[in-house]
User: What shape does this take?
Amino acid sequence: MKENEYKEYNILTKRLLAEGYTADRHPDYVRVDVSAWEKKTLDNFYGGFTYERWWIYEQTFKTPCGLQCKGLQCHSNMSYMGIEWTFENDMATIHCPYEKKECTLKHEYLQDHGVLRYDCEVHMTDEEYCDFTEKLFLEFDRVLNLGGVVLYNLSYGNNNRDGMYKAVNTIITKTPFTIADVICWKKKTALPNNCSPNKLTRIWETVFVFCKKTDVDIFYCNKPVVSKRKTGQKSYGNIFNYIEAKNNDGSCPYNKATYSSDLCKQLLNIYCPKDGVVYDPFMGSGTTAVACKELGITYIGSELSENQCKWAENRINNMT
Ligand SMILES: C[S@@+](CC[C@H](N)C(=O)[O-])C[C@H]1O[C@@H](n2cnc3c(N)ncnc32)[C@H](O)[C@@H]1O
Assistant: This one.
């Protein structure tokens, strides 16, 4: 496909092409966002040129809700309701500096979508996130099998270091769940990368293992029995709560926060019995399903974005 034939280029790319730039010759504040080993082409997942991070940080963007915000406060690359919310389309989404609960300036598509606000953090307050988490865990309580666990990966952001602890507190105080274990996930590389103010701190993330308070003594954990006393009492071997695993499985056009099947498999080997069923309510690009399929474990998934569902289905069907 020739560069100028591509129909869904982002606004930035259309502008640069009209000005005569190409994938090989372009301003230094943009890049062609493909893996190093692939041929440079503008027909990439993100619809052409993307801005360099350092440039984004130096800019201000008008957000969907009409606020003028620093690039540092913006998120990008979210696909929703047929709109690509990206810097390149002059449609940045933000973690609102005012953290307003209700806002009349919000884009019409961002109204009344609690879930969406969770996803992109537009106007999300810690209280809202905790409410969301509480509802989520009350639903988990309804569907979780006896002895099952909920694996919940939480981390903190530049703008909010407290939220994850408030969420954990909500879970243990307002739902029937408690902490069964805490896993330290050591990632291959620290992200966000070195232009982030917390550049040294995100090489690991937390995976909280929650079980029902009534299941503390019986929740499933694949601890090997290393010896058995005459009395029948068993001694167990260690299960290490430090897991080293890849950051993710690569990019998906609809979701930059894809997940690591490497991590999922290591977690499943500990917390899922062979005849268990895994449910991922936020399936995204299908990483949990990929891990389950590789391990021969039954899985169910749900996902809000139709595009991602199709992407995940395709990914799973094409597994060898
Ligand atoms: C961080 S991503 C998950 C990424 C996923 N682990 C993967 O492998 O790509 C969170 C996903 O949850 C989805 N989502 C948010 N709220 C949802 C809901 N209520 N029901 C289903 N999916 C939802 C979003 O569309 C997004 O794809």
Summary: Residues 115, 119, 255, 257-259, 281-282, 284-287, 302-305, 308 surround S-adenosylmethionine (CB under 6 Å).
